[in-house]
Specification:
The complex is a heterodimer. By secondary structure, chain A is of the alpha/beta class. Chain A has helices at 10-20, 33-42, 59-68, 84-92, 105-121, 152-163, 171-179, 190-205; strands at residues 2-6, 26-30, 47-51, 53-54, 57-58, 74-79, 97-100, 126-129, 132-135, 140-143, 146-148, 168-170, 212-215, 219-222. In chain A, β6, α4 (84-92) and β7 form a beta-alpha-beta unit. The longest helix of chain A has 17 residues, at 105-121. Chain A is globular and about 55 Å long. By secondary structure, chain B is an alpha+beta fold. Chain B has helices spanning 3-56, 122-169, 187-235, 243-273, 285-303, 320-336, 386-396, and strands at residues 63-65, 68-75, 82-89, 96-108, 111-120, 281-284, 306-311, 315-318, 343-348, 352-358, 400-406, 409-415. In chain B, a hairpin with a 3-residue loop joins β9 (343-348) and β10 (352-358). The chains are: A alpha/beta, B alpha+beta.
């Protein structure tokens, strides 16, 4: 599956590609409006990550082109503008999601994953990972045909982990994902540890393997146990 | 005290003092003149008596009429001529009356006499009283007229001053309305208005340039932060990191996080001041608060904080996004500055929202409370913009924030309908 990153800030574009490459994604970059337009008209992408302010034009115009050509590419807008109006405009123009800078790559990963899932599974909303089976509609977890009760936050956390599997996820990124940007919670991330601990316990009790590995106090990694 | 009240007071006191002194002087001078007049009459009487004695070589008969008494007393010694004022009792109605008296010696053949001529002062006193009465009334009228005139005149003269004062009082550099000063033909006021106009214009320009600067600056900072953060996100993916590298990375990560949060808050403050949240809706605050309480539930459980709520329906007009941020900030605050096993209480009514918490921190400085970057304790990890944000959001929504500290407990109250003024 191919992803197009339309972002004029080369360093940021490179980071995004580095993070999303591997797994099932192939990453292409466009640094200006013209290149992006060309690539969009020539190829099909599973997802387009789109900056709004670009040299040579606006990302919103690209979005209109995409919709006009009736392409079904998923689009995530990444922008430094975070006013509600900007978001509404972007989503109205046909974007699937809107992420404000600065964001965590894990957050972007989770959102790209969600969009591709939505496009690819078309109504079938079951997500599988090893012994885990997530019903995205009901927001339910089943392990080996046994339902496991998760709190809302635990469910979101698990989905976030699966979307960024095999990656180290920073505690800060988890905090922002679960509670949003403007929750001014002091540097104390102990409460995340509590959530992880609870989730881990429930998975183990349900008969799943231990997928969550802590990485030196920096964060956590969700993967199949070696 | 108002300027012209003060002026009037001083003026009145000074006038009264001057009039008092003048009245006393007036009284004594009139009295002197009148007494002098009577003394002259007495001298005329003396001359007449002396003339009579010369001509007839005998004393005239003693006689007294209502206001004049003359009698003679034989004496052996020569008499000293003198004027004096005496009080005599009237034989008929036994009334005490003041008399002016002239005593002089007069001699007929071989016999020395003392002549006493007295004239009643009653008439003089009556005249004096009338004069005084008239002058007191005149003085009172003058004072009254002066006071009223001052009041009316000064009020009218100072009118432009008060109008300018009001205009300046309502001046806010953040609001885009030019100040209207009343035109006046008084030079001093014109000069003042011109100065005020120049100052307010300059402060507005400075404010605007500062605002544009801070907004642009924090906007520009977003991109580098985004890059640094993304690079750190990539770096931590490296399996080969040692523990000490990880720790270093984690501090860098936290610092970027802090910077990003700080920048976000500054940008938000600039936007609130920029009035970018004008879109106001009716918000059911109770529902919104209940959603937030659910979000925070786990945080509270984690810190073992007991939460006490008393929520009634409250509907307010404000921007949805700001409402979100306001509640987040208030609730985060109550958690962040709390201790494990502490308490939080939340009360919502149609008039106010109160959020209080236990804390080990001392009373906050009420003067500096809402200032940007105010940190009560040196080791504080927050960026010092939270309270400033709360205050700005409240102001932008027409609310008022109050802070209370009692029994080691902090409480913030948002009043939705603060009494006007």
């Amino acid at each position: 599956m191919k992803i197009l990153v339309v972002e004029d800030e080369k360093e940021l574009s490179q980071s995004i590609c580095d993070y999303l490459s591997g797994e099932q994604f192939m990453c292409e970059q466009a640094f200006d409006y013209r290149t992006a337009l060309e690539k969009i008209s020539l190829y099909d992408y599973a997802c387009v990550i789109l900056d709004i302010t670009l040299p040579g034009g606006s990302g919103l115009d690209l979005l209109k082109d995409l919709k006009k050509d009736d392409k079904i590419d998923g689009v995530i807008i990444v922008s430094a503008k975070n006013a509600v109006d900007d978001k509404v405009n972007g989503l109205k123009a046909g974007a699937d999601d809107y992420l404000t800078k600065p964001f965590h790559l894990m957050e972007l990963g989770a959102r790209v994953d969600a969009i591709i899932r939505r496009k690819a599974f078309d109504g079938k909303n079951i997500l599988r990972f090893d012994a885990l089976q997530l019903d995205l509609n009901q927001k339910e977890l089943t392990v080996k045909d046994k339902k496991i009760e998760l709190t809302k936050k635990e469910y979101e956390l698990l989905l976030y982990f699966i979307s960024n599997k095999n990656k180290v996820i920073a505690k800060n990124a988890i905090a922002i994902h679960l509670w949003g940007d403007n929750f001014d919670i002091a540097d104390n991330y102990d409460f995340i540890y509590t959530h992880i601990k609870n989730l881990r316990k429930k998975l183990l009790q349900g008969g799943a393997a231990d997928y969550i590995k802590s990485v030196y106090g920096m964060g956590y990694k969700f993967s199949l146990p070696a | 005290m108002k300027l012209f009240t003060r002026y009037n007071r001083i003026n009145l006191v000074a006038n009264i003092a001057v009039f008092l002194v003048a009245s006393v002087a007036f009284y004594f001078s009139i009295r002197y003149v009148l007494v002098h007049q009577i003394d002259e009459d007495l001298q005329i009487e003396e001359d007449e008596i002396t003339a009579f004695v010369h001509e007839h070589n005998r004393l005239p008969e003693s006689f007294s009429v209502s206001d004049q008494v003359i009698y003679f007393i034989p004496v052996s010694q020569p008499v000293q001529r003198r004027f004096s004022t005496v009080t005599m009792t009237d034989k008929e109605d036994r009334k005490k009356e003041d008399y002016r008296r002239l005593v002089f010696g007069i001699s007929t053949t071989g016999q020395n006499h003392q002549a006493v001529v007295s004239k009643s002062l009653e008439g003089t006193r009556g005249l004096l009283r009338s004069i005084l009465r008239v002058s007191i009334v005149t003085i009172l009228v003058i004072l009254l007229v002066a006071a009223v005139l001052n009041r009316v005149l000064l009020k009218r003269l100072w009118q432009p001053f008060y109008a300018s004062l009001k205009a300046v009082q309502n001046f806010r550099p953040s609001k885009n309305h030019s100040l209207l000063f009343p035109s006046t033909n008084i030079d001093e006021f014109n000069a003042m208005n011109e100065t005020l106009e120049a100052i307010t214009k300059r402060s507005r320009l400075e404010y605007l340039s500062l605002k544009t600067f801070s907004e642009n600056a924090s906007h520009e900072i977003q991109t580098p932060i985004a890059i640094v953060r993304s690079k750190l996100d990539l770096l931590i993916q490296d399996e080969a990191l040692t523990e000490s590298q990880s720790k270093t990375l984690q501090s860098a990560y936290n610092a970027v996080e802090k910077l990003s949060r700080l920048n976000g808050s500054l940008l938000l403050l600039a936007k609130i001041e920029n009035r970018q949240f004008e879109d106001v809706q009716r918000i059911n605050l109770k529902e919104k608060l209940q959603e937030k309480l659910e979000d925070f539930q786990e945080l509270w459980q984690d810190k073992n904080i007991a939460v006490q709520t008393d929520l009634q329906t409250a509907v307010v007009n404000m921007n949805t996004e700001l409402a979100d941020i306001l509640l987040n900030n208030l609730l985060s605050n109550a958690v962040n500055h709390n201790y494990s096993g502490g308490r939080i209480w939340i009360a919502l009514s149609n008039d106010y929202l109160r959020i209080g918490n236990t804390s080990t921190e001392a009373k906050l400085d009420e003067e500096k409370l809402f200032q940007r970057f105010y940190k009560p304790s040196a080791g504080s990890t927050n960026n010092g913009l939270g309270l400033s944000l709360i205050q700005q959001i409240a102001e932008a929504s027409g609310f008022r924030v109050q802070y209370r500290f009692q029994n080691e407990q902090h409480e913030f109250e948002i009043r939705f309908h603060p009494a006007t003024k």
